[in-house]
Amino acid sequence: MSHVKNRPLSPEQLDAFGAELDAIQQTALQDVGDVDARYIRRVLKTVRYSEVIGRALLYFSFFPPAWILGTLVLGISKILDNMELGHNVMHGQYDFMNDPALNGKTFEWDIAGTSDNWRQSHNYLHHTYTNIKGMDADIGYGLLRLFPEQRWRPFYLLQPIWAFLLAVLFQWGVAIQELELGKVFSGRKSKAVIKKELEPVLKKARYQLLKDYVFFPLLGGPMFFAVLSGNLTANLMRNLWTYMIIFCGHFTADAEVFPKSIMEKEGRGHWYLRQLRGSSNLRGGKIFHILSGNLSHQIEHHLFPTVPARRYAELSVKVQEVCKKYGQNYNSGSLPSQFGQVLYRIFRHALPSKPSSAVPAMGV
Predict the structure, then answer these.
(1) CA distance 350 to 344
(2) What are the transmembrane regions (predicted)?
(3) pTM listed for this prediction
(4) 28, 270, 284, 313: which is closest to 130 by C-alpha?
(5) Contact criterion met (CB below 8 Å) for 293 and 88
């Protein structure tokens, strides 16, 4: 358990810890400006141009390399749209630009989930209640038991299968996450409410399905099935990649889960500490970080969600210095190592398990 790697902090030390992180964030926000605006506009152009190139190449699929290259380019375009563009813009990281095309409150991305639902389930709930059991729906996405603190049920015996299906269909899992279908089945949500909530979800799903599996394939004429299979493969690429990156952000071996009581009298320093201990980073090169939407720096993202993500690598150096000063574990590793730990959690906690220690994870 990672809490054995962390030094207990007194209330005064917690306040000082929070103040140092506040100062890092404030300095970064004061420096945000033209360089960030130019960067995100380049990302937006790259997404748009690569989508056009990828889709155009698929219309020449009678030449097999064109299908492979077109699918790859389209898949990368969808990954960029999802991660470095959509995710970060909708966090409001570029609202300072006052550009309607990059406004966090109105941006719509190329996945099945509606942006409005995501802003509620991710921007608000996940970032406010990070890794708090019963409050953060991202813990297992309502399907998986990833921590021994979660109550075991026989349903979890097959969770390696549920985890595989969630990875393959990840955009659809995100799309229905906000609906909380479990409450419908248990009678805690009325049919009238779920019917109203389903309307925008079905509208977005219909648009995405018609676009990728009807409209663009029809434009391909005799290449209909080649274009359709290219779109299907590109979406699968995006689903698997985002699943890996996001699961590595909160479910590695040292990532902790917290009880609801953690919020009682939670101050700023305590909040920062929970974000730190509930998150984990991935090491890699510049291209890797861009394709992950810089969520490879999940710790910095959770500490400073409104700071443009392109700055996280620079901020991570300062955050590590603060963690070292206050004796806190900075959870970071390679993608194979961190994802291997996620897979271990999926298989291990499919079976009954108990927390290894009675020591409160956030005790001071």
Answers:
(1) 10
(2) 57-80, 161-181, 213-234
(3) 0.93
(4) 270
(5) yes
